[in-house]
Amino acid sequence: MTDRTLPDGWAWTTLREVVRPVDKADPAGFSRQTFKYIDISAVDGDTQRLGEVPTVEITSAPSRARQVVRAGDTVFSTVRPYLRKIAWLPELFDGEIASTGFCVLRPSKAIDSRFLYFTVTRQAFLDEVIAKQRGVSYPAVRPAEILEVPIPLPPLPEQHRIVEVLEDHLSRLDAVERVLEEARVKMRRMRAQHLTAALRSRELIASSTIGDECEVFVGTTPSRANPKLWNGDLPWVSSGEVAFNRIATTRERISREAAGNARTRIHPPGTVMIAMIGEGKTRGQVAILDIEAAHNQNCAAIRIDSSKFLPEFVYHSLRSRYEHNRNSGAGGVQPALNKQKVQRIELPVLTIGDQRDVVAEIEEFEDAHTHVMIAIDKASIRSAALRRSLLRAAFNGELVDQDPTDEPAEAALAKLRTAAKAPTGRRRKAVAAP
User: Fold this and answer.
1) Can you give the three-state secondary structure of 323-344, one letter per residue?
2) Does residue 330 have a pLDDT over 60?
3) What are φ and ψ of residue 192, in 5° steps?
4) What CATH architecture applies to the domain 207-349?
5) CATH superfamily of 11-155
6) Would you call 321 helix, strand, or coil by DSSP?
7) Would you list the domain boundaries of the chain?
8) Digit-coded pLDDT (tens) for 15-67
């Protein structure tokens, strides 16, 4: 990193040199009991300016383990998978407290607070931090290691100019992203409502459930300690392969012996699959088997009476209820559906002819929906690329002009080093929050 040539007046340094120590909470200094507590979960998505977060009631003064934050601080999560949880704190959070899962970066006089925030949101900086993570079950980076990451530092007046230009351009990109996200939400809502709209003009025979109209089976995972059970001729579906798609091939295969009872464990083409367990977007997603296959215990097979239902109709009925289905899971850390919940999912009953018409109408809409979503995704990719380009230009000294009259960054750093070596007299007490 530090072998890159910097523009005139810039200097390589580390975060440690340009941030100030952050005091822990001093219980004797608190006269109030209600605080805004910034947890890692309060930072929604990637980097952002932190907005409103829940207020917590604290029955006694915060312990020294809590960090008192100030307006202008940047909080940087030190634990995976949240290393991109980074936020800049506005005036609203002055004197509040933050989780010790954050490394709190408080700017010194040598660095603009917003410039500090942009510094640690760069991909180059994040790459260096991620490389320093340690641990298996709970990977994390020590704050001391974050503080040692090298950073390029322009003169302070140039930092102000860079921030001004970045704020202007990035605020425009933020507005674009908001519009794109609103479009995504509207398209998802339209998809969820489209089945209802398609059903309005058809005569509903009955309103039933998956369990009343279909057979539901839960699969199993053969022992991986027995190699004879694997690499056979029977496709085996994992929940991650159930992703709003048709399944014509699988990543793994098992032996028919491993599947067990063929009647309940091996399913014919036309079976609809639903993922019951899975992180992210997996839970509640559906698929149609185009092949004979078995599956694991994290998804359910819905075997359909072809004289009463089209697989595509059941598939689209489940897909239209995706958000509802995934939110109906039960459990703690990883909510899940189960066989009984799948059986209780509502299923409209139409004639085969009406089902065929509904499927044709929905699939026509899906084609249009796909084109729109691809366009939205491409716009988001371009926006993200432009954001990276702006930050790259800013930290290469290409975004604003250099001014030879600016005090060089090295001079500002020298003042900090001199001040750090100066005798401080009596030991300074921890700064108490108001």
Assistant:
1) HHHHHCCECCCCCECCHHHHHC
2) no
3) -65, -30
4) Alpha-Beta Complex (3.90)
5) DNA methylase specificity domains (3.90.220.20)
6) coil
7) 11-155, 156-205+352-401, 207-349
8) 999 999 876 665 555 666 678 888 887 887 667 767 667 667 666 656 655 78
- CA-to-CA separations, 153 to 11, 15, 129, 181, 328, in angstroms, rounded: 5, 10, 18, 34, 50
| Nearest CA among 13, 118, 124, 24 for reference residue 64 | 24
Bridge partner residues of 287 (DSSP): 245, 273
Report angle CA 404, 73, 109 to the nearest 5 degrees.
35
Q: Give the residue ranges of DSSP H helices in 25-155.
A: 113-121, 123-130, 143-147
Q: Report the C-alpha gap between 122 and 396 in whole angstroms.
A: 12
Among 318, 142, 335, which Cα is nearest to 214's?
Answer: 318
State residue 16's pLDDT score: 94
Mean pLDDT computed over 164-182: 94
107: closest CA among 150, 75, 83?
A: 75
Closest by CA to 12, choosing from 153, 116, 155, is 153
Q: Is 95 left (phi over 0), alpha (psi -120 to 50) or beta?
A: left
401 pLDDT band (50/70/90 cuts)?
very high
